Amino acid sequence: MITTIRTDSEHLDFIELVKHLDAYLAEIDGSEHAFYAQFNKIDKIKHVVVAYENDIPLGCGAIKELSPIAMEVKRMYTSPNGRKKGIATTILKELESWTGELGYENCLLETGIRQAEAVSLYKKCGYRRIPNYGQYIGIENSVCFKKEVEVNPLGKICYTDFNQLNSFIEDKKSGSILIDYRLLPDYEGMVLNIGIIFDTTKEKYELDLQWISFGLDLFGENLLMGYSYQFKDLKSLLSYLSVRYGIEVTDIPIKYKIDSEKFPNPFKDEDRKPIFEESWTRFKKDFAANKFLDPRLQLVYTTPPFTEN
Q: Taking a C-beta distance cutoff of 8 angstroms, is the pair 64, 71 a contact?
């Protein structure tokens, strides 16, 4: 019976399988192996699948982020005594499912034009050939493929604990995490965007709050106001999120994908525009009066308050 596990690049069975893969590729690629090898390092891969038969590791594969909407399939390998058993297909399907669960829309990959079995596998599994991307542009012996995957409707696979979230932040060093969009029941057509902005090199941990009129401006480019609060560390920020908004670490998505059908927008709700305009006008006045400001926190940024003419 074939079984799979999800793990990361530190798993010993994965490391051992990759050694065999690299030896195989060194023979196939010949003088070009050094070029390809530089893009196949595994030290920072966080999403790995290993396949077993009777507890014996026979195959592996991995995904890593290529863009905000795409994962790249990497390190696909089946050992010689595991071939012709559907193991590669099983691994690939598991990687595709994982990609969708994380909120990504596509799987992309590169393989060698000499690897006829791999090319045949990807075509059989629904991948279509695309122009070579990134470092493979202009490389004649590379062929690239793409497949759209089914995205988890919620797009919300969350961090399991503080250590996992903190590790992500420490690895990335700087960036932002979108946590949630929440409807504002007292202001029709409006939502609250809750997120975290971080820069570990500057010990920066900010809670970012943006109030947006989705009913009038779906993309929040103009009709928004917000605050950013500085916290001394990540734990204190998370403690505030828990008390103020009922958000625990296990509620924070690894990758948030908005379900636009849940929220108002100026196209499908055009008939409600006067209601949304009244809410936005009322909100601006309340925002200017500091109704949403928490004076206990260290405010580091605010959008300019609206001023009536």
A: yes
